[in-house]
Amino acid sequence: MDEEVLAGGNSSMVIRVGNTVPRPAGPWTPAVHRLLTTLRAAGVTEVPEPFGMDKQGREVLSYLPGIVGNFPLPSRIGSPTILHEAGSLLRRAHDASEPLAYAAATWQLPAHEPIEVVCLNDVAPYNMVFQDGHIAGLIDVDMASPGPRIWDLAYLAYRLVPLGEYSNPDASGRDPRLGRLDALIRAYGHEFDQAAVLRAAADRMEDLAVFTDQRAADMGRIDFLEHAALYRRDRDRLLHLIASLHAP
């Protein structure tokens, strides 16, 4: 079948062949396929189904139809419905992944303590598939690795609230991002403190900056250096927001 280039793909080109998506594989691919199979068996069918490897050594996943939330993001992606569905979907994926959290496996990213679940590590609109104003799929989970629930939730908040861009407080003086953050935490269904999620998001920004610096060096992608600088600026914004929670 002919190969169709799909929109998106930050580090490599993404293609579609019929109803499948072949992607570059690595030593972590068996663990990721086991994760996808485990999630789907538990009813989390919003993730792709793994079909093994093709003759070119690529992993083969099922194609999930819909619109991927690439930039610039349409305004409806920030709707209360999407916030609720994203938090609920992440919780379902985490709960289903628990049996694999301590299983012997090779993951692309290191684990983070305390290990509670398998974190997907890149849950964001650009890895979500949307249909008719709802989340229909969650793709590109090859960065998964064991870690704490809040590690994943914090990154989802960073991307979906969002927390990386300044928002003016409303007429009451309350930052609207905090209300959206509360809604996402409630949808996840765990009593996380706002400040704890924001602190985890700040830690994630530094971790991501270090990772991106290394990728820039390994791949010769000078443009990645600006991405790393942005993550560190966003880390500082998050720390400022945490401080504002305790301001009189």
Automatic annotation (TrEMBL):
InterPro entries: Aminoglycoside_PTrfase, Kinase-like_dom_sf. Residues 108-165 form the Aminoglycoside phosphotransferase domain. SUPFAM superfamilies: Protein kinase-like (PK-like). The lineage of its organism: Bacteria, Bacillati, Actinomycetota, Actinomycetes, Micrococcales. It comes from the Bacteria. Pfam families: APH. This is Aminoglycoside phosphotransferase domain-containing protein.
